[in-house]
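User: Here's a chain of 225 residues. Predict its fold as C-alpha cells.
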Amino acid sequence: MTKFLCIDTSAGSAVALVEDGEVLARDYSADPRAHAEHLAGMIRKVCGVNDNGPLLGRFNVVVVGRGPAPYTGLRAGLITARVLAKATGAALYGLSSLEILGRSALGHVSSGEVMACSDARRKEVYAAHLTAVGEDDIRLLGDYLVAPATEVAAVAEEAGVPAAGPGADLYAEAFSHRLGEVQLDVAAAARIVSARLVANPELELGTEPLYLRRPDVHMPKAGQK
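Assistant: Prediction complete.
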C-alpha cells in the first residue's frame, strides 16, 4: 500500500495523509507567516503521532508543493519535506502548487481546462493554464505566468478558460469567467503523482523551489500563440 504525505506551504500550510486515493486525515492553517511553527504539529496530527512518537512507517511517499510562492513560506515546506523523506526513507516528489490548485479546480469544470491563479502580492497573480490528463493528472499549457490580474484575465479570456483559485477570487472584478471560491486541496497532489508513477515507475520530480518574478517571466499578449 502506498501512503502519501502531502505538504504545501504556498499559501498558509496544508497537510494531508492519503492512502490508495482515500484521504485519511488533513489539516490546514491559513496563517501565511507561521509555516515553520505550525507544520511539524500538523504533520504529527494527520499521521496520528504524539509529540514524541516516531513518524517512521506512517507514510512511504512525500509530495510537496514547490510554488510559486513567497520565499519564506515555500522554503519551510520544502525543507520539511526533504528532511522527512531522508529520515524515513520515503520517496520524495515535488509538484508546482499551481498544478495542485488546478487539479483541485478541474472537478468544477466540464471543459477540462482551467487558469489556476494564486496571489503573488504586489497586485499580481501567479497563473498557469492547465489541462486535465485523464481523471487524476494535469499538464501545463504554455508557461507559468506572473502579472497583474487584468493581464492574466485577458490571456484566460482569449484561451476561453475559466480562472480559479485565491488569486482569481482576490481580483474577482478582473475575471469575467471565474469559478467561485476554489481552494488548493493538497490531497490532489497524491492523485497527480500516483497517475504519473503508473505511467512511469522511474519518475523523478524535483523539489527545487519555483520562484516567478519579472523580468525573468514575460506575459504573452492576448491573442499570441
